[in-house]
Amino acid sequence: MIHSELVASIAEKLDVSTKEASAALSAVTESIVEGLKKDRKVALSGFGTFALSDRPARTGRNPQTGEPVEIKARTAAAFKPATALKDTVNK
Asked: The pTM is what?
């Protein structure tokens, strides 16, 4: 499902226009991003948890030349599905 299909689904289920559904989806995603920036973790019970993890700097290898390459430290976002979501999807 792509963004436009998700917006259409929300609009249908809430009986609102696609413009309002798009605004609602944007508000939810922006709130999740703000929560991650503030607390580094956002938990939605029954759905899952979004969390940030720090990846340290490391030395990798260029696969074509075999030369060592420095990979910078970064922060990565991850999603861990709740048991209820996993059970629903696997039925």
From this structure: 0.81
